[in-house]
Write a structure and sequence with these properties.
The complex is a heterodimer of chains A (292) and B (278). Chain A has 13 helices and 2 strands; from the N terminus they run αββαααααααααααα. Chain A has 292 residues and is mainly alpha-helical. The chains are: A mainly alpha (292), B mainly alpha (278). Chains A and B meet through helix 1, helix 3, helix 4, helix 5 and helix 6 of A and helix 1, helix 4, helix 5, helix 6 and helix 7 of B.
Chain lengths: 292, 278
């Protein structure tokens, strides 16, 4: 029998849990249910459809396109963010002056409104009037203006760069916090033993940083799976669906085609996919968990 | 500083300065574009330094009743969501961190935090049907309902994190002196935890202020449209007026920039202690 204090604790949490149940848990379960029903516009009624919605997805080339595009999108974002974030974290960890100033600036993209990021990058990438083309032409790096969002491969790269701008602070600050926890003596003794900076980084710092890297990769992957703002604003999923990530595909199925059942099924697939990636990743990346 | 450290320091500073340029340039360009004349905006090659500074784009957007209405809607939604989020999350965080014994509080908090990682797409359709059923499509209460699903988990986690650092002895002393539970929350916990609670409130405000996807899906008329949705409409025009778009972007950034400047330290700790979304 729990104590009176404990019961009181639950009582304090009850209103929140009630609202969370109404605003998060029930809608999510409702969504899972809808994935097995189909709206009949002729009769204005829902009918049970079994796994028809999922079968429809498997037959839809656009679904598989979104599936692969999302794969490229997530891997591209996580890799680029990890490289940029690691470089920034190492630099932050080694500077002796202005550290607070630099880390405040690094946080700016993270708190930026995503819509504004999309709009501003659209303007930076503008094919005729964009400052990026102007800069590259002045530096003599390109001869003619580049249409950053007009060809399939380049559009994907341009979106990944913009998304990395928004999300690299998450990786940089997570890794920086991890670096701060590594005792100075460990790194110094490696140096005394004759290891050069690259060897120290590879054999001492990165292994010790393992858990922070795992956290950073996981968070950055989850946000990449969930993000479709840039695609919806900057390319609309084009050209030729080359940037139509899963989130945007679901949005289109739900609100352009009004096929709620199929959209629910696709979002359920995405949810399970994220869950599998998370669990698999936690198993692989966290050796401390093994054998538990 | 020893001689051997100097090149390393130089490289680190150079990298961070490059990062700062990478981070700040888009904002600088946004501001510069917003105060250029149309002639300068469409000049090629680009005129980096405007020949003439103008505030006509700000004047134009601020005299657009539709934009002002959307700013007002954004402010109302954000304030209401912030208020409700704090009213619900502060007692819950207190109950789960301080009152529940036997280790059940922490897993519940983690479960609550995990809700922020739900893909938003899971909610597209059910929220639409629920809001339609309740007659709340195109209304501010409808948006508030949708936004709480985002802000509540984050606020609860942040308040719980700040409560964790308050020593239990203070409460026990107050309880021995005959203070009631509500008295303890009101007179002891709230004043000490105020910075953490204010931070959670600012997070809720900023998240609601910049939210756009639910607003886009569930408000199709001007009545409840928020400012980010209006940015979509500016983009949808045949000829995109980038100067006007950038001035709108500047105006929408200010309510985020000011609180960030005040509490940027807490943003960092929020990020490292729960991967809180920005």
């Amino acid at each position: 029998m729990p104590s009176r204090t404990t019961l009181k604790g639950y009582l304090f949490a009850t209103p929140l849990i009630f609202v969370l149940a109404a605003a998060v848990v029930l809608p999510a379960l409702y969504n899972a249910g809808l994935a097995f029903w189909r709206y009949d516009a002729m009769r204005d009624a829902w009918r049970f459809a079994g796994v028809d919605n999922f079968a429809k997805l498997i037959d839809a080339p656009a679904f598989w396109n979104a599936f692969w595009v999302t794969g490229v999108w997530v891997v591209g974002n996580v890799s680029l963010q990890l490289v940029v974030g690691m470089a920034v974290a190492l630099a932050l960890n080694s500077v002796k002056a202005f550290r607070g100033f630099y880390s405040a600036i690094v946080m700016v993209p993270w708190v930026s409104s995503f819509v504004i990021v999309a709009v501003v990058f659209l303007w930076l990438y503008h094919p005729d009037l964009g400052v990026l083309n102007d800069l590259l032409m002045r530096l003599g790096l390109v001869e003619t203006p580049v249409a950053w969002l007009a060809s399939p491969g380049l559009a994907m790269v341009s979106l990944i760069v913009a998304n990395t701008w928004k999300f690299f602070p998450l990786v940089a600050i997570t890794l920086f916090t991890g670096l701060q926890a590594i005792p100075r003596e460990v790194v110094e003794s490696a140096t005394v033993d004759g290891a050069n900076p690259v060897q120290t980084l590879r054999h001492v710092v990165i292994p010790l940083l393992g858990p922070s890297i795992a956290t950073a990769v996981l968070l950055s992957a989850i946000w990449a799976f969930n993000a479709f703002t840039l695609a919806i604003i900057m390319t609309g999923g084009g050209p030729l669906r080359a940037t139509e990530v899963m989130g945007l595909y679901i949005y289109k199925v739900a609100f352009d085609s009004f096929d709620f059942g199929t959209a629910a099924a696709a979002s359920l697939v995405l949810f399970v996919l994220i869950l599998i990636v998370t669990l698999f990743y936690l198993r692989v990346a966290d050796p401390a968990r093994e054998g538990r | 500083m020893s001689r051997s450290q100097r090149p390393a320091q130089f490289v680190a500073h150079a990298m961070l300065v490059a990062t700062a340029v990478f981070v700040l340039f888009p904002y600088a360009w946004m501001v510069v574009t917003s105060i250029k004349t149309i002639d300068d905006v469409i000049a090629w090659p680009i005129r980096w330094i405007p020949r003439q500074v103008t505030f006509e784009h700000y004047a134009a957007i601020l005299s657009d009743p539709r934009f002002m209405r959307s700013l007002f809607n954004s402010a109302v939604v954000s304030v209401v969501v912030t208020g409700i989020s704090l009213i619900l999350s502060v007692p819950a965080a207190y109950g789960l961190t301080r009152l529940v014994r036997g280790g059940a509080g922490r897993p519940m908090l983690i479960g609550i935090l995990a809700a922020q990682f739900f893909p938003p797409m899971v909610f597209f359709v059910p929220f639409y049907i629920i809001l339609q059923w309740l007659g709340l499509l195109n209304t501010i209460p409808g948006l508030v309902f949708a936004y709480l699903s985002v802000t509540l988990p984050i606020c609860t986690w942040m308040v719980a994190t700040s409560l964790r650092d308050i020593p239990v002895e203070i409460e026990e002393a107050a309880r021995i002196d005959g203070c009631s539970d509500l008295g303890i929350i009101w007179r002891i916990i709230l004043p000490i935890a105020a910075p953490g609670i204010v931070t959670a409130g600012i997070f809720a405000f900023v998240l609601s202020w910049q939210e756009y996807i639910f607003a886009l899906l569930y408000t199709t008329s001007e009545r409840a449209q928020t400012a980010p949705v209006l940015v979509f409409y500016l983009l949808g025009q045949h000829q995109i007026d980038y100067a006007r778009l950038m001035s709108a972007a500047v105006l929408l950034s200010i309510p985020i920039a000011v609180p960030f400047a005040i509490i940027q330290r807490f943003y960092r700790s929020g990020l490292t202690e729960g991967g809180i979304k920005g």
